[in-house]
């Protein structure tokens, strides 16, 4: 098998003629092309070997906004058990859909308006959970999201 590399025409602003280099015209170019071919093959093999490693850690993420309840929780606000259950079920439905879509990371907004979706000594509870800013929802939404996401092999970032 004969491999022939034809290199691009080199134009010089100082020379009026074009110079075309081929592997047939130069023993040096033949030697260099063999080295280049070897390095290229080594690089491709390295990429193929490491591609499996990197594909397993590919980031496929999505953003879940809680501002104005655009993404979650959109089913209602309050502290009744039916509201809490519907908020949890909505989160589970989202995570199941994301798992089916092979999403492996969720970025959950947990501080939409200088308030929080977790117990904090610095920020009040979010009004998007209960309808009233600072009112304890009776459960920890962030902890729930973390547990449910990890059950599905999904990373949760806040």
Would you write up a description of this structure?
The chain has 158 residues and is mainly alpha-helical. It is built from four helices and three strands; from the N terminus they run αβαβααβ. It has a three-stranded parallel β-sheet with strand order 1-2-3, covered by helices on one side. Strand 1, helix 2 (81-100) and strand 2 (105-108) form a beta-alpha-beta unit. The protein is elongated and about 80 Å long.
Question: What keyword list fits this structure?
Answer:
3 strands, 4 helices, mainly alpha, 41% helix, elongated, 158 residues, disordered N terminus, three-stranded parallel beta sheet
Give a brief rundown of this model.
The protein is mostly helical and 158 residues long.
Judged by helices, strands and strand pairing, the structural class is mainly alpha
Percentage of residues assigned to helices: 40-55%
Per DSSP E runs of 2 or more residues, the count of β-strands stands at 3
Coarse morphology = elongated
Radius of gyration from CA coordinates:
29 Å
Distance between the termini: 57 Å
* SSE series: HEHEHHE
Biggest sheet: strands side by side, in what order? 1-2-3
Biggest sheet architecture: 3 strands, parallel
Question: What are the segments in which pLDDT stays under 50 over at least 5 consecutive residues?
Answer: 1-19
Mean pLDDT figure: 80
Number of helices: 4
List the SSEs and their pairings.
Blueprint: H1 27-56, E1 61-64, H2 81-100, E2 105-108, H3 127-130, H4 141-151, E3 155-157
Parallel strand pairs: 1-2, 2-3
Helix pairs in contact: 2-4
